[in-house]
Design goal:
76% of the residues lie in helices and 0% in strands. It has 427 residues and is mostly helical. Helix 4 crosses helix 16 and helix 6 crosses helix 7.
Length: 427
């Protein structure tokens, strides 16, 4: 799959300006905006309902203490998503396709299987989150709300048929609603700035805080968008030579910094708001429903409404992005494609099952994020391997410092997961 989204690029006569030159000729602003967008689609996965669960739980239980985890995860995300975007621009292929081309077939198949399991864990968070929001706002039963989420996800995905820009703009608009919701809450609540600053000093407080930190990491650095971002940039803007590739990459780096910066602000705002409202006297609040009711009681209906609308926007947007990522994974790793309806039904089944049998939705969200954190190395290690190979990337091969930094990120994630396992099962 060399062009997963329909292109909006304008065809030009032979010998005329290239698509990139045509876009840049539109002016200082209009010549930049069309080059931005892929990172905003990826950023939605960094503020999905799983983040709500882990950040609210972390803020209520440990105050501002885990803010440093969010900051670190966000910086990791900027590096990772830049590498993913680069591999799509430079090779014209997405990461799963590059894996299938360069790895042995059994390796690609194994990576595909684990990626599908990760897709199910992703859908678990997104569907449950949106269902909870519909339940809180409109008192829709959770199972019915889950079905409604699936319908909305299909509607957003249908925008792909009209070109990638409409899909990107719809996702960006939903991301904007999430941002506005938490900015409103933060300004209304007015958290303690001094205590918040102290939260950026790295520390833990027992195995429970490690579990939450791993969940935050899994909710922030998402495996499926490591695959997806490369698909969003491959052949998005047709380029003529290495010079144009470098120009495109310059704007894609700006795209990543802006989008991931917004995602980081949202995640920090979630934890800060929870810490300010719940940590002193209400630290036992560890569910999204409890947080909604707590905001309503302690802050006011406006704050509760902003929280629920942000959660709903996050669930709808991330559900659409997750479905699309699953299609990229399957077609890239094994060269197969199934109808989006079938894929959507398969991956949403675990979430609907949990909603139907009445398991604790928030606890299920937190566990799903821990599962996701274990999938990160299987996406990150191939990304680092291929972006550091000159035969794959040519003159765009990673600098040594980039490869070292990305390798350290992968190592930290793996070590944190191993530590979590030891703490969990030894206790």
């Amino acid at each position: 799959m060399n062009k997963p989204l329909e292109t909006d690029a304008i065809a030009v006569p032979l010998g005329g300006p290239t698509p990139l030159e045509s876009i840049r000729a539109r002016g200082r602003v209009r010549g930049v905006l069309p080059l931005l967008g892929p990172a905003f689609v990826a950023a939605v996965a960094y503020v999905d309902p799983g983040n709500f669960a882990t950040n609210i739980t972390g803020g209520a239980a440990h105050g501002y203490m885990l803010l440093w985890v969010i900051l670190g995860a966000n910086l990791m995300a900027m590096l990772i998503q830049t590498l993913s975007a680069k591999i799509g621009v430079v090779t014209g292929k997405n990461l799963p396709e590059v894996c299938r081309e360069h790895f042995a077939k059994p390796v690609s198949l194994s990576l595909w299987v684990q990626a599908e399991l990760i897709a199910m864990a992703t859908d678990l968070a997104e569907f449950i989150g949106a269902a909870i929001a519909l339940n809180l706002l409109f008192d829709v039963p959770l199972f019915t709300a889950g079905l409604m989420t699936g319908v909305v996800a299909f509607a957003i995905l249908a925008l792909q048929n009209r070109g990638y820009r409409r899909f990107e703009l719809a996702i960006t608009a939903l991301l904007g609603l999430v941002l506005l919701g938490f900015l409103y809450q933060t300004l209304k609540i007015g958290p303690n700035a001094h205590d918040a600053v102290k939260g950026f000093i790295p520390k833990f407080d027992g195995s429970d805080s490690v579990l939450l930190a791993t969940g935050i990491l899994g909710a922030t650095v998402m495996p499926h968008v490591i695959y997806l971002h490369s698909a969003l940039t491959q052949n998005r803007i047709p380029v003529r030579d290495d010079r144009e590739k470098r120009k495109v990459m310059r704007f894609l780096r700006l795209d990543v910094v802006i989008a991931m910066g917004i995602a980081g602000v949202i995640n920090m705002s979630m934890l800060i708001v929870a810490a300010a409202v719940f940590h002193s006297g209400h630290s036992d609040i560890d569910t999204i429903e409890g947080a909604y009711n707590g905001f309503d009681t302690l802050v006011g209906g406006g704050a509760a409404l902003a929280f629920a609308v942000a959660l709903l926007s996050s669930g709808f947007a991330s559900s659409s992005v997750g479905t699309y990522a699953g299609q990229v994974v399957m077609q890239g790793f094994i060269g197969r494609k199934i109808p989006l309806l079938v894929r959507r039904l398969i991956t949403m089944l675990p979430a609907l099952l949990i909603l139907a049998i009445g398991l604790d939705p928030t606890r299920s969200l937190v566990i799903s994020q821990v599962v996701l954190s274990f999938g990160i190395p299987f996406a990150l290690i191939p990304l680092v391997i291929f972006t550091s190979r000159r035969e794959v990337m040519g003159s765009f091969v990673n600098k040594r410092v980039t490869t070292v930094a990305a390798s350290i990120v992968a190592g930290l994630i793996i070590c944190l997961n191993v530590f979590l396992l030891v703490q969990t099962f030894s206790g």
